[in-house]
Sequence to fold (769 residues):
Amino acid sequence: MNAPAAPLSPYSSAIGKSNLESHTLSVLVDNEPGVLARVVGLFSGRGYNIESLTVAEVAHAEHLSRITIVTSGTPEAIEQIGHQLERLVPIHKVTDLTLRGNAVERELAMIKVAGRGDNRVEALRLAEAFRARVIDASIESFVFEITGNVSKIDQFVELMRPLGLVEVSRTGVAAMSRGKDPI
Amino acid sequence: MADVMTGADMVVEALKDQGVETIFGYPGGAVLPIYDALFQQNAVQHILVRHEQGAAHAAEGYARSSGKVGVLLVTSGPGATNAITGLTDALMDSIPIVCITGEVPTHLIGSDAFQECDTVGITRHCTKHNYLVRSVEDLPRVLHEAFYVAQHGRPGPVVIDIPKDVQFARGTYAGPQNIEHKSYHPQVKGAPDRIEQAVMLMAAAKKPIFYTGGGVINSGPEASRLLRELVAATGFPVTSTLMGLGAYPAAGPNWLGMLGMHGTFEANNAMHDCDLMIAVGSRFDYRITGRLDAFSPGSTKIHIDIDPSSINKNVKIDLGIIGDCANVLADMLGVWRQRGLKSDAPALQKWWDQIAVWRGRRSLSYKFSDKVIKPQWAIERLYAATKDKDTYITTEVGQHQMWAAQHYHFEEPNRLMTSGGLGTMGYGLPAAIGAQMAHPQSLVIDIAGESSILMNIQELSTAAQYRLPVKIFILNNEYLGMVRQWQELLHGSRYSESYAAALPDFVKLAEAYGAHGMRCSDPADLDAAIAEMIETPRTVVFDCIVDKMENCLPMIPSGKAHNEMLLPDMEEDLENAIDQAGKMLV
Ligand SMILES: Cc1ncc(C[n+]2csc(CCOP(=O)(O)OP(=O)(O)O)c2C)c(N)n1
Ligand SMILES: [Mg+2]
Fold:
């Protein structure tokens, strides 16, 4: 094959940052001590990015957990990340949901907003529009619970900022493929 | 067969069941129960090293020279941390070893107890896998699983951290039968359609090359045999990495010599100009490829590897085949023969003619001297004196290592034990001890530098204790020679801290350890001295005084491409060979 124009290595310093993509990886692991440290250590040790990470046991009897990682990198780097994850002994399966397409992704966030008067009314009105629920309220504050994809939550947080945003707690992304088949 | 016993006994029982005859180790408080269990049996021999790093390298030397798993046993805390370099070395070079570490009792874990360290935390990054065994019920499974993980797929080091109370606790032992791993099932058979595609590319190739690596050796002797058959069937040239030397014999007609930073001119130029590269069990390390964006720009690249993450990691591959080298090579040969395929003979002839021109540059040449021993010549003479013997070579790290790779010719796999990936000074002597334990009747030689050897010199004591006749052949240039060479290349010959000052008298040092010491500085005496070394049935330290300023050439200066090599007749250009970007690289 002919001389490639671009540098050949995903690690090449010359490689542009222009083709960074964000991918969601679904990783099924044995729920044993240290497994999360292995995954996180792999990302830090090899200089990969973690944009969000969620983990919880999903099959108690089989001791399986699912780790959902949103990462960014060049397509080559993301392919590497998948293979590097597969190398870890307690990992059963790695699926790049973004590559597969057709996945649903959701995140849950809690958002505390403090204020009185018009701001408070406006916050509540916007929360309704975004289908956020009030899960705690005081005379001067609300805690909203909102579920949605990442950009919806980002947008809601931005809207709350001028209305008295105090703090945000987000779960990170959980994801699943559509249709009847498992990931 | 239910067998109730202590955790410590389980360890010994599992070693026996895994066919382990020799382990390397050093005792301490947290492994005393296991040492007590060892004391009460004879099936497993324990070799007492003098530093846990030595135990790890000895286990590596044992493993790599025999194809078996190497085992070491060390105590908690400092015992474990001392082993870290050896574990990392084994990870980088894919050497199967199992390291059993004692741990403080479970109820003390996390309390900063005496000789406690976070062994599994620390070794997570330098092992293929590791275990902390919290219950004796888990111990038999973990022990057997560790051997499985160390050997299967891409081999590597595995740590089993066993708290002292678990060693004392009693439980039911189970043997290794039916150990099916829950999640780890590496793919060993290559995809048939890809193998077919690869073979068709080979039949059409005009300028092909095999680029083989340590994976061929890790795959076992069958892989080397099949590689030789495939090379013979196709007539293609073959080069190899440092870790792959011996898979194809150096005396074979298609051998181009080693490639990479200190590889031959013909191997590197053939890599650069080829139209089809068949990488087998090699990993495109930077020291192999040189400047990546100028690496073999016109070739189609096939990569056979058992580790999917190796494919497309550093270099874009056109056809990746995941599988064990031996399986894939056998299948390739099968398709080649079944289809009655033939190489493109006229094209191949032209390719070999071109290679002959490159070979004509005689890139490994050096100026002989009758005044001072040239290090390359010393290796040549050592080779001449030992090539017809059953010889295993280990090396330390530096110029001498590269000279050994260039001028000692390996005809068989598993005959060279060297620290390739990590480049660990101090590897060679303990590795030689390991190799000697695996091959008691063979001649085992550590080709050393005077500085590297001092990094694990205490292992002379181990060699003496077990009467191991290892030979330590020191190319003594009184310099951290490879560092000095780079300082010439990069830093205006300002030899910052690279002179090996205050060296010991190696002859006296040998005698102090109960070994035989020798010195040779006159080229006229070298052959006789080497003969004496070989004939001495004891540990020998041979202080070979060589030219202090010799540089290791040829060389691809860092940041340069395969076709920009520095040859021996261009040595004056050394200072200007590396540009600013290259200086950043290692
Ligand atoms: C543990 C360790 N520390 C530092 C280095 C860096 N290093 C590479 S080669 C070398 C010099 C080795 O000197 P010597 O053993 O005398 O070999 P020579 O190059 O002179 O043949 C050094 C310091 C290394 N490879 N390993
Ligand atoms: Mg030296």
Remarks:
- DSSP finds 22 helices and 20 strands in chain B.
- Residues B 398, 449-451, 477, 479-481 surround magnesium ion (ligand 2) (CB under 6 Å).
- The longest strand of chain B covers residues 97-103.
